[in-house]
Amino acid sequence: MGTVVKRGKTFRAQVRRHGISRSATFDTKASAYAWVEQVERDIDAGASGDTVAPAGATFATLLEHYRDQVSESKRGKRWEVARIHRTLRDPIAEVPLARLAQPAVVAWRDRRLKQVSPASVQREWNLLSHACSLAVREWHWLVENPFTGVRRPPPTPPRDRLATEAELGRILLTLSYQPGLRPSTISQRIGAAAVFAVETGMRAGEIAKLTWADVAPTVATVRSGKTAAATRRVPLSPVAQTVLSGLKPDPVDLTARVFDLATSQLDSLWRKAKKHAMIEDLHFHDLRHTAVTRLAKKLPILDLARMIGHKDLRMLQI
């Protein structure tokens, strides 16, 4: 039997039946009880769809639904799906939705902190909590978000790693790349992308998506999102122009990607090159920080913010 509890001037109705949880708020007690009776009839009759969780649903069921219905349309789909699949291998995935509560989240958090950094747990936390919030607000699969009220992992200090000239030289040697020479291998294109990142401060994803239609002689247009507000123009230094001249085909297909790389290739091959060059703890994204540090000595902070794409000037305080 469902329950109806008075809260101030409203009545909160809740039904938990056969592993399915739903709740709603009403102005009158009679309408709350009428809703409870209807929901119980629907569940007993085997009603299904987005507004009722499947019978016997677990947290894995919720995450798979989120993956297929929400992650599918996101720009960060690849990373969300990877994190969801990782969570599907954790014991929390087997917890029935009717028993998914704070203790299960605490146990998951403590397990993950033994395996990965607090920053990684924070990223996974944001994804899982968002899935639970949708399950509460839109799908009515959960009564409350079990991540609410649980202590998050401690925040990690901002990353402050810069690439030195010696490190850049070693990794470019490993990748067999020299600016101005036409890359003939994927490793050399990774080297070209690295030099371009240091010169422009562009992100790996922005570099990978850059097409020849986005490139003018002295400026590149970066499209970070779907709106004009997310587009910015990045000046090209002489070194950046030299990198591009070595990549430019003849004839030019304006729809073709400049570096002919996927972000997954950039990530994996950079890791391998870094290892072969015996360089510790240098991420490809650190090249952006290296670029910002160098450019801050040459550009006014507002010009630097426009070039890098930061709206919060505090992020550029070096």
From TrEMBL:
Alphabetical list of SUPFAM superfamilies matching this protein: DNA breaking-rejoining enzymes (SSF56349)
Keywords: DNA integration, DNA recombination, DNA-binding
A Gene Ontology molecular function term of the record: DNA binding
Domain Tyr recombinase: 157-318
Name of a matching Pfam family: Phage_integrase
Protein name: Putative phage integrase
One Gene Ontology biological process: DNA integration
